[in-house]
Amino acid sequence: MKRKLLINMVVGILITLFLGSSYGYTTNSINVNFQDLTVDDKILVEGSEVYISLAAIEKMGYDVKWAADSIEIYNPVDLENEERNGSDVEIVDELGNYQGGVFNSKRSGLGTQAYLNGDTYIGQFLNDKIHGEGTYYFEIGGIYVGHFENGIKSGIGKRIYADGREYYGEWDNGLWNGYGSMIDERGTKIYALWENNRMIKYISKTQFKERVN
Predict the structure, then answer these.
(1) How many C-beta atoms lie closer than 10 Å to residue 97's C-beta?
(2) Exposed (0-12), middle (13-18) or buried (19+): which is 46, by Cβ within 10 Å?
């Protein structure tokens, strides 16, 4: 089982940690709640509270993971072998902050991903990729509501752009491909066959509805 230290950042006074030996001190100490962790042959049960520096933690051989408002310290071996599962798990990594379903430490199921670039996605995931139905909110404006395949817009979806344009219909490889309706900046609506975001020919509203709806 993973042994983890849950940490809240504090500005501490000069404190020396003595657990059989001294690990030094720091003016930027960290309040550490140990959970059944053995340090220098002494077991610190949950609720034990000490002050310790990050240098001391590294000296003890633990890895540091930064979260949104805290730090988590892991035994490297436990972290390497750990598989996280659950329907409401938080992941903080190079993509940003995720909250939702996780299977074998990967985003799977329903979840919310807040990306570092300001975009947000709410919907289905599979193996760490957007997959299934969901809504993607763009930081630059506009949204996409519809289906994804392995992180790419595919199937039926609606894209509302920041400039007011709207496309609703078939997607493939992230582009307008197939039957779709387009509302331009002036509010004019057309039904057409599209290929790689380019209109090939006009179609009737009936043809569109038979295919898309």
Answers:
(1) 16
(2) exposed
Q: For residue 167, what are its two tokens?
A: 């496309």
> Secondary structure of 113-132 in the HEC alphabet?
EEECCCCEEEEEEECCEEEE
- Which DSSP string corresponds to 63-94? EEEE-SS-EEEE-HHHHHH----EEEEEEEET
**Secondary structure letter of residue 95 according to DSSP:** T
Token output for 147: 């289906």
Q: What is the pLDDT of residue 78?
A: 47
Between CA 133 and CA 144 the distance in angstroms is 10
* CA 142/CA 47 separation, integer angstroms: 47
Q: What pLDDT, in 10s, does the model give residues 88-134? A: 999 999 999 999 999 989 999 999 999 999 999 999 999 999 999 99
Please tell me whether residue 110 adopts helix, strand or coil conformation. strand
Decide: helix, strand or coil at residue 48. strand
At residue 55, the 3 state secondary structure works out as helix
- Residue 181's pLDDT band (boundaries 50, 70, 90)? very high
Does the pLDDT at position 45 exceed 50?
A: no
Q: In angstroms, rounded to a whole number, what is the distance separating the alpha carbons of residues 72 and 7?
A: 6
Q: Can you count the helices (H) and strands (E) in the chain?
A: 3, 18
Alpha-carbon separation of residue 29 from 32, 142, 159, 171, 178 (angstroms): 9, 44, 49, 53, 59
Give me the amino acid identity at 19.
Answer: L
